[in-house]
């Protein structure tokens, strides 16, 4: 029991000394401590008194400034490391977004080309003497009236338009071998119904289903085209 008590007292003394050392702040390097190792206690006390007098002239200085500097510097390094990781993550996300955008643009262009090709075929089956096509309208179409110096740039962009430039889809058709192409606004109600069905059939040919069910399909059609529709 005596040994346990002595051990307990030693632990208390060690903790007390550790707290006192902590209050002193940052300790000097070992090389400076070696210069005072051979001095007597009285000499050390005189040196301590001189040092305390010098320290009084720095009483307005924060004694823990160096410790705070070290602490803040460590936090700064940790934050910089974290920033690098975040920047790397941002680059990866941007690369993923660009990749997905490219895949999306490719899918949209492929789908439009496929529907457009099927629309030509379907319209040709419905109107053998005519022709029809889908037109992708872009915001670049509105730039045609700009300065002539920009025409070459506009033409180049039209050849490889970005999906973000797409604004609508138009239909241009001709119902006879001769004559001008007509836009939707110039067609009759029966012709518009025929075009709507041609577009529906073109979309369905891109993604065929086992069977299709239509209700009163030929109600708005002209009698000329009813037989052609039933032939599909």
TrEMBL record:
Query: What residue stretches are annotated with the RecF/RecN/SMC N-terminal domain?
Result: 92-230
Q: What is this protein called?
A: RecF/RecN/SMC N-terminal domain-containing protein
Q: What lineage does the source organism belong to?
A: Eukaryota, Sar, Stramenopiles, Ochrophyta, Bacillariophyta
Which Gene3D superfamilies does the UniProt record give?
A: P-loop containing nucleotide triphosphate hydrolases
Q: What domain of life?
A: Eukaryota
Q: Which PANTHER family match?
A: STRUCTURAL MAINTENANCE OF CHROMOSOMES PROTEIN 3 (PTHR43977)
């Amino acid at each position: 029991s005596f040994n346990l008590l002595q051990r307990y007292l030693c632990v208390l003394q060690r903790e007390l000394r550790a707290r006192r050392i902590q209050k002193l702040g940052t300790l000097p390097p070992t090389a400076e401590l070696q210069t005072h190792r051979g001095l007597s206690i009285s000499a050390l006390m005189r040196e301590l008194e001189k040092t305390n007098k010098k320290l009084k002239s720095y009483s307005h200085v924060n004694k823990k400034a160096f410790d705070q500097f070290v602490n803040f510097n460590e936090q700064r390094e940790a934050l910089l490391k974290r920033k690098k990781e975040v920047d790397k993550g941002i680059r990866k996300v941007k690369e993923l977004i660009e990749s997905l955008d490219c895949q999306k643009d490719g899918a949209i262009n492929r789908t439009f080309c496929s529907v457009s090709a099927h629309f030509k075929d379907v319209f040709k089956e419905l109107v053998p003497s005519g022709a029809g096509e889908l037109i992708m309208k872009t915001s670049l179409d509105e730039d045609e009236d700009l300065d002539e110096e920009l025409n070459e740039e506009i033409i180049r962009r039209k050849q490889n338009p970005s999906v973000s430039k797409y604004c609508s889809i138009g239909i241009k058709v001709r119902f006879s071998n001769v004559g001008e192409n007509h836009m939707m606004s110039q067609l009759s109600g029966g012709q518009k119904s025929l075009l709507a069905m041609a577009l529906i059939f073109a979309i369905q040919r891109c993604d065929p289903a086992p069977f299709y069910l239509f209700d009163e399909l030929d109600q708005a059609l002209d009698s000329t085209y009813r037989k052609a529709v039933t032939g599909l």
